[in-house]
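Troubleshooting: if your tokenizer reports a length mismatch, compare your output against this known-good record of 462 residues.
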Amino acid sequence: MNYLPIFIDIKQKPCLVIGGGDIALRKINLLLKADAAVTCVSTECCDGIKKLVKNNKIIHIEKAFEATDINTQMLIISATDDSTLNAQVSVLAKAANIPVNVVDSPELCSFVMPSIVDRSPIVIAISSAGKAPVLARLIRAKLESTIPHAYGKLAELAGNFRDQVKAKFNNIEDRRYFWEKTFSGIVAEKVFSGKVDEAKADLQAQLDGSTDSGVGEVYLVGGGPGDPDLLTFKALRLMQQADVILYDRLVSDGVMELVRRDAELIYVGKERDNHAVPQGDINQLLVDLAKQGRRVCRLKGGDPFIFGRGGEEIETLAENGVPFQVVPGITAASGCSTYSGIPLTHRDYSQSCRFVTGHLKDGSMNLPWDELAVEQQTIVFYMALVGARHLSEQLIAHGMRGDMPVALVEKGTTPDHQVYVTTLAGLPDLVENTTIHAPTLIIVGEVVKLREKLNWFDVGSD
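Known-good structure output:
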């Protein structure tokens, strides 16, 4: 190691920053986050530093740096564009055995400022020893995307119970096992979901020996329209910690690649008139698995609450006292239209948008056609490929123009993304004379005209 990574307590300790520009401001703000007592020395200062002085956050001494400015500081940062001055500060600070950082000059530093992931009291510092700071920032960005912000609250919770855990478990291995189970279990998940009081109660119950550890939890997770990059951070986290995954036909291969490797996979996909597992059986299976103490991820394409029958599933879970979470996903209408260059609303073409299922529970397509066949509106039909002729006839019969633009988006956002553009009158012939596979979304509205101008996601071809 070029540097020993350490964390220094600088709460209300004197720290000196030399320089008054934007870079100095960034360093001052970082010191203030650690509650340092900051003094800034510079002949001029930027507006941000002036604001901190006005709000009594720091002390600013308006003058050129002098050797006597270095005395009993905890640490010193030189953030000027004067290389001679920076070198002087470095020599003086090192002679006084005060840690010094000179911005963008690692050879003058006795310590470096790392890229930081702040989940206080959890803090992660990433350093390249000054050789590749941009790379360190990129690594930080990756960590930011995978570590929930609530990890700090989880650490605080653990700290509050640390003495109790020590008293209950004399053996360090037993304590380690207890915390590992806690940090990867329902208590942690409740903290991540903002249910801190419930998490405290559960942890206390575990320590008191009064907890019912037999019930697991169910996560209804929206897997999005297909592109795995569209998953939310929370969806990814729950997918990777679930013991069992119940997944649908519409969940893409790319999304399935991201589930926990050793999880049990149960396919419960449904096609028109061909349900691998009836919905009632899926509902009961979720209950049964959770009551075995397992963490169950019910992974759905799109969003669980937009034609995903998630409401039916959580009704059954609630009736049986099974804890659950629902994680929204990007619904197919949003993902497929965006990747096709079709905005769902536009001031010149559409002031409203309706999501409609083309396949009701009884197999019919009994829709409010008068409400749908209006101008300045976008209609997105889910599961309507088989009923394309019927919807075309009904919309035209209720007053919609036959030349209204229509787009069919097949396997949207995936590498097989394909878009077909036609008119409302031409829709039946297109579907009947072209091999188009489900899942396919049908978008009806003037916004389809914008596709040629706005299409940015160049996959497939029309």
